[in-house]
Amino acid sequence: MNLIPLILAVPLCGAFCTALCGKRGKLANWIALAAELAVLLMAAGTFPPLADGLDSCRFLLVGEPGLAFAADGFRRVWLVLIAFAFAMSGLMCPEYLAHSHAQARYQTATLLTLCGTLGVFLAADFFTLFVCFELMSLSSWLWVLHEETPGAKYAADTYLAVAVLGGLVLLLGIFLLHIGFGGEPSFAMMRQLDYTGAPRALRYLTGGLMLFGFAAKAGLFPLHFWLPMAHPVAPAPSSALLSGVLTKCGVLGMLLLSTTLFQNDFRWGEVVLSLGVVTMALGAALALCSVDLKRTLACSSVSQIGFIAVGVGLISLLGTENALAVRGTVLHMMNHTLIKLVLFLAAGVFAMCRGTLDLNELRGAGRGNLPLLLAFLTGAWSVAGIPGGSGYLSKTMLHESIVEYTELVKGSGGSIVTELHIVEWLFLISGGLTLAYMAKLFLTLFVAEPAKGGKPVRMGAATLTALAVPSAALWALGLAPHPLTDRLLDLAQPVLTGAVLEHPLHYYSLANLTGGGISLAIGAAVYFCIVRRLLRRDGELVNVVPAWCDVERKIYRPLFLRLLPGAAGLVCRMVDCSLDGAVVLLRRTVFCNLGKPKREVAGVRLTDTLGRLCDRIVLLLNRTVRRGDPIEHRSFVYIFAEREREIVASSRLITVSLSFGMLLACAGLVATLLYLLV
């Protein structure tokens, strides 16, 4: 049985039901949770027929190409992981949103986002991916806006601007792919085609536009700025999904480009690798300096997306020997989803109980809460790459891929060996910074002496479950690398590459432990020498990042508000004038009779008769019942006549507006038809 249509339909039906809940927020929370658990059960049910090959389905909108979906091994793994993340987030919602407004709206946005996210990972081609990508982006905007504070509105504006701009640029790239390369086949077919003979300029232009759209959602430098803005203002359950799941939709697009249009492409791999290195180091540095809990975790997400982008770049650079890079990239994507699910939900517990995310005010707040401590420690342990955690496995594979490519270049006499050594050291240093800022968070929240008068941090059974289950999954992936983790990667790898590992990777060999040890030593040195000495004053953490480092407020927004309107103003004015001229022309020609009042207006005799009748009734009342207190009024004949004239004028205006709107809609349809035909 093909479960794809049902998996996509359940969250849509759930969103319709939650939208009808109105102010009954508790009911909306439980409906959403039921829908998320149902999707999780169905996603888990897709695993038994894995050996049967590829399940697929297609929905026709108006005609071809329609929306095409497929479920191979890679997609099935992610199907379960996405449904699991939304279900765990949904478990926390009843407690977290208990005193929040617009709970039904939040859950409607959540289920629409779930449907869009599932559609992105199940998409069989770029057209379907784009449609689901936009559904996911626009519905998740309501998460950022949910609190409706000035900061939330500002962050929501930024998020929406990035989402819309990224979507438009992505759509332009898909158009070029469709026009320039003879249609748009499925991803499975694209991996079998050879694009090296295609015009290089067109191929790079298409890839660059699509990379921009995907990088905007992934949070890749220089489009990373929305993550530190959106995460602190969004509710914690949605922050966990924004960081852990939605950013992976952008990474998925980059991964698909690297394994289809740019297979074995050296220049493409260099660009993605460079962007990944910058994002990796920059995010770690920003997280180290932040004094806000969720902002620190958001900057950490930027850094971890950089680690993943390094793997995506290496997939193209290593060519037919990229099996290790593919496995490391996919595993780090999975790890980051679970890690940020645990850490952001834990941050939500602090926000619920203390009403603040300032680390100085949360000092020692977690002391005495052992389950919360263990859950947070699990996420911190894994993301820092400490042996035993699942993050150690993925970072080991990525590091080995860098070493492998360095040796490959050295053997071929390449001239970028020095640069690759720099990349390797930046990789190790960024891993060390990860340990430093996670140690800062853990020691501040759970070890430092608590401030007096602080309310104890407590959580309900559902929230505890939402933290414990993904924490257990992280330990299972980390402690059972060969029986569990490698088997999951064996399912996902063949979809992305035809390369195979010559032998299983020895994760705990001396060489791999040495690389991990160097990174941990750097992290310990940074924490004791920088965090404790330079980032603390009088026992409190301080933010040393200058205000001018805010690229969104200092560069992007002024550039958009000052330069872009000047360039686009002339075009907008020309369009405005042309539309005004079209309106005047149509009013004087096609719609000339609609604006003139007709001599015979239906209803005049009726209103006159009703008015005289009402006047006589009032006169009779004044002479009998109301003789001592007569009713003062205007003649109902004039009152009804005025109302009749207002109704006629409004109906004429509506008729003209609808007619003109229909004319514009027809013009748009004709233009679309001409575009499709040409």
Question: Can you give keywords for this protein?
Answer:
4 strands; globular; two-stranded antiparallel ribbon; 678 residues; mainly alpha
Describe the structure.
The protein is mostly helical. 73% of the residues lie in helices and 2% in strands. It contains 22 helices and 4 strands. The chain has helices at 4-19, 25-44, 73-96, 103-122, 126-145, 150-180, 187-190, 200-218, 226-233, 236-259, 266-289, 293-318, 323-354, 370-383, 390-411, 417-447, 461-479, 481-496, 510-531, 551-588, 604-623, 636-677, and strands spanning 55-59, 67-71, 536-537, 540-541. The chain has a two-stranded antiparallel ribbon. Helix 1 (4-19) runs antiparallel to helix 2, helix 8 runs antiparallel to helix 10 and helix 12 (293-318) runs antiparallel to helix 16 (417-447).
In short:
This protein is an all-alpha fold.
